[in-house]
Amino acid sequence: MKQLLHVDVGDYDIEISDNSFDELKLSIDDFTSGRKRLFVISKKVYNLYKKHFNFNKEELLILPDGEKEKNCKNYIKIIKTALNKGLTRHDVMIAFGGGVIGDLTGFAASTYMRGIDYIQIPTTLLSMVDSSVGGKTAIDISEGKNIAGTFYQPKAVFININFLKTLERQQFNSGLGEILKYAFIETSCGYSKPVFFFEFLTLCCEKFFEFDTVTLIRIIDYSLKLKITVVNKDEKENGLRKILNLGHTLAHALETITKYKKFTHGEAVVYGMFLAFNIAFRKGLINYSYYRLSVELMESLGFKNLNLGKVAEPGKIIRYMKRDKKATQEGITFILPCGKKQVKEVKYSEDEILEFLK
Ligand code: GLY
Fold first, then answer.
1. For 335-343, what is the mean pLDDT?
2. What pTM value is reported for the model?
3. Active-site residue list
4. Considering the chain, what is the average pLDDT of its residues?
5. Tens of pLDDT, residues 194-208
6. How far is CA 123 from CA 22, 95, 104, 211, 268, in A?
7. 56 CA distance to ligand 1 centroid (A)?
């Protein structure tokens, strides 16, 4: 089974399939034929899949796993490896792994010799439904996540759901967090026709956990159709694209405070969405029935709200929220539900947020 999508911004295709790994290897070879390549791959993914892909060591850079590896040291390592292997501006980098590898390789590709092509082979659910598409690239510094980064679109994205068979449950759930986000923003995305993603997720969650191929491909397809619609309208996040940050104001603060060790990104996003729904209901932006249905959807997919007080005191959470790229002098920005499957940007002062966090 195969689904093809196109992104106008950057003019590239996304293939979502359950093809064999032999077929995937052929597709990558076809796409990059005649060019030098640098595969940047996570150690875990390399160990799991080296026998399937028979990588040429001359084309390979293996990096350790984990968000803390999305750093300056590994960025320079990619740049130097590309240089040592003689890659020119006409050659190509291949990000083969999860979101960390994708963001890091994309950032290196966007700056290597002022920019060379890269393609994304996402191997986690999170990177399949979010970070491999849309061209956000970045590295983290100790002060915060994604502080140095660029908008730089890949030349192709090959999504193969067979990689998910070896994904740990916690990582699978992380992807689910971002998938839920699309259910809550569908109307605001402005896709040409309704896909009823909220309803679809409500009905199909069992099949999803059973690894049903058709369901998985459809969920990735719907998520990306919504994301692509947004990215095509606002690549550089001047307006509409901010809606993709539902749940992220709190998520980034939680991830940084806990040094990326306690929560996966998707989990942190879900906690951020619980807070967003809570604020929206208290502020009268949504009615009780939609609030309940949304909380129930998150709960039916295995998520529970978090006692924030157990992670950090409110003042500390606010300090970290203020470091977010989206924060301004006037206050901290939240994307909040404001109607069924609709969201909008709202700014709150520190005092107001303190009330919400109590
Ligand atoms: N992950 C949010 C975005 O791509 O804009």
1. 98
2. 0.95
3. 114, 136, 178, 227, 237, 241, 245, 248, 252, 265
4. 95
5. 999 999 999 987 788
6. 16, 10, 15, 15, 20
7. 32
